[in-house]
Write a structure and sequence with these properties.
This is Carboxypeptidase regulatory-like domain-containing protein. By secondary structure, the protein is mainly beta. Helices cover 9% and strands 36% of the residues. The strands form 4 sheets. Strands 1, 4, 7, 10 and 11 form a 5-stranded mixed beta sheet that branches. It has a 4-stranded antiparallel beta sheet with strand order 6-5-8-9, with no helix packed on it.
């Protein structure tokens, strides 16, 4: 009697776990702190290797997820939710990845109409920061995390409605030269004669 044993290559499994949160409070339309970020339900978590999807899952009501896949590295963990920029993490083994979504585009201005229009777009990547609204200063810290900022009629460094300025200086937007600015200095043809001449 001849006994033949066939060994198949066992594929070991890898696992990524974590929690997904966001700082935007959908109920109040305001922002929390990082520590008070809210759980995100139904965020999509995808494992990708060489452009192929290995597995995909969605977060539970408490923002938690657990995803298993064949032990193939390096792999990319992508986390998507709402209109936020997709988060991507490269991994080389089983791990825990916690992610908090927050706006990464800041429009810093003092025109309430612009703020209303931007909010009506319901794009969570964008935060409208009204520099003259005293309640906005509670969100100054978010400027430290933005990837792009547009300063509209803003005068950073002057002390005029610029409590957000030190945070923006530490931002990825500043480090990557991704800050644009517009300021309309009046001329002689304007009805506002308090402006510059010429």
């Amino acid at each position: 009697m001849i006994l033949t044993v066939s060994l198949t290559g066992a594929v070991s499994a890898a696992e990524v776990t974590g929690h997904v949160r966001e700082i935007y409070n959908e109920t109040s339309g305001s922002y929390t702190t990082l520590e008070g970020a809210l759980p995100v339900r139904n965020a999509t978590v995808t494992i990708i290797h060489n452009g192929s999807v290995l597995n995909e899952t969605r977060t539970a009501p408490d923002g938690s997820y657990r995803i298993n896949f064949n032990d193939t590295f390096p792999a990319v963990v992508q986390i998507k939710y709402s209109s936020y920029r997709t988060a991507s993490y490269t991994i080389n083994g089983s791990c825990t990845i916690n992610h908090t979504f927050m706006p990464d585009i800041a429009i810093i201005s003092s025109v309430p109409e612009k703020g209303r229009i931007l909010k009506s777009m319901e794009n969570r990547r964008i935060i409208y920061h009204d520099m003259w609204d005293p309640s906005s200063s509670a969100n100054d810290w978010i400027m430290e995390y933005v990837n792009f900022a547009y300063l509209d009629m803003a005068m950073p460094g002057t002390g005029w409605g610029d409590s957000w300025y030190p945070y923006l200086l530490r931002s990825p937007a500043n480090q990557r030269n991704m800050i644009a600015a517009a300021f309309g200095y009046p001329t002689d043809t304007d009805s506002d004669h308090g402006g510059a001449r010429g």
